[in-house]
Known about the structure:
By secondary structure, this protein is an alpha+beta fold.
Amino acid sequence: MMHAYRSHTCAELNTAHVGQTVRLSGWVHRVRDHGGVLFIDLRDHYGITQVLADSDSPAFAAVEKVRAEWVIRIDGRVKARDAALVNPKIPTGEVEVYVTGLEVLGAAEELPMPVFGEVDYPEETRLTYRFLDLRREKLHRNMMLRSNVVRSLRNRMWGQGFNEFQTPIITASSPEGARDFLVPSRLHPGKFYALPQAPQQFKQLIMVAGFDRYFQIAPCFRDEDPRADRSPTDFYQLDVEMSFVEQEDVFAAVQPVIQGLFEEFRPDCKVPSDWPRIAYKDALLWYGSDKPDLRNPIRMQVVSEHFRGSGFAVFAKLLENEGTEIRAIPAPTGGSRKFCDRMNAYAQKEGLPGMGYIFWREAEDGSGMEAAGPLAKNIGPERTEAIRQQLGLGLGDAAFFLGGKPEQFEAFAGRARNEIGRELGLAETDTFRFAWIVDFPMYEKTDDGKIDFSHNPFSMPQGGMEALMGDPLAVHAYQYDLACNGYELISGGIRNHKPEIMYKAFELAGYPNSEVDKRFGGMVKAFKYGAPPHGGCAMGIDRAVMLLADESNIREVIMFPMNQRAEDLLMGAPSEPTNEQLRELRLRVVPKDQ
């Protein structure tokens, strides 16, 4: 008895099946008319099989009617293709199926966008008809990659002795650093639940409850402004927490999972196993970013001393102000005026007055190497030579200079470093370079001069209570990120599990004890009943898949993403509630113009 819809999938048939009668079901990928012979590429989840009918086939009239993306079932005989017509690109490329019967299972209207051929289509159309978009080969492949990545992560975490637990989706509002999505309560009018920005408090409570190693593939909800590498509403993370651990224990548990994952899904790439630890302040100094792309070998350095009191008045004057410095971006092989001018123009395009530069070339009089460029003339040969020695540069190399208060030019310096590395072809390709960024500052000064948490408020300050007695801005937290190729992949920390240190940490950021009790009552209470030292981290799954799929937009690896304005164009979200819903929740919507 033949199955109602298929005896094989569209990826299964090969020369071993020649002569057999088979049944296939799938979508009409495309139709080709070769003068009286009709060819259909029939596609399902697994692959593509070529089927054909000529005028002798009893199904010819039916085959003539079908169009792209119709769902059909065909019966037919498997034939070997002529040697000249074999398609080595697909598993079924040596055979074709001669159609003897056809049934239309689902006809399709005229398509708003093509599925065949990876045509670049406006995002609005793609998201409105996401179900069609997902039929396209690249997106289908990305979603299968994502599914397999999640399975692999689960297996690897179980293999490391972690247990998976689920935490609530409807919970209380908590200041995690982004805006909450609020959910009105029908049973408690005027009160709201929140969707969790992360399972942070729950996973810490799981440790206090005596479970040792927790993980979860957890959905997180944040009302954020969209970016290319961030979803504006919800995302998934591999959430991890461990008891009785120090920072190094977390690193040791996580590295084999992430490294193994990248080796498994990108065997074409190098995944070096030396993951350096870089202090946050060094990352900003050397790379201009706390998520550096280490495929680019350029490392910036402070060169203030060579310009102090020099003939280059702009820098010499700058350095008379407190908190200023001059930094150099070495540019190996960048030693031509043409390249230096191009980078100077790049700086101006980015809104800076420009970048000073020096480059080293053969002296015209044949006396060896000379330094060229306006800076070299202004500061003289001795200082220029000292700079060259410090930066380890030589003939045919260049260096660019930026000055001022680091926080004002650091981000640009980081972008310039990337641009120089790209232009000069210095960055490695086909490599994933990981680094742990450590020693994040616990606090920062806000624009209005107040002290606030610069990262996760639940991290343990390095040095404990004693450290909190001094200058808050000098306190480092046991807080770390894992950077990969210019993206932040993981963020985490060793948690503050002592109520007295926690109260003090929040007090420095302007939260009285009563406020801490109100906002984090459950967790503070738990810490008063015997809390173990614990810590963990979370990895953005969407971002990891984006890197593995070699995509630059996170929407290419999310099945049903929102658009840039946080709208779901397919389902029509957000939508207006009915009056009945509002009445039940005792809510009133204030018109926009009030």
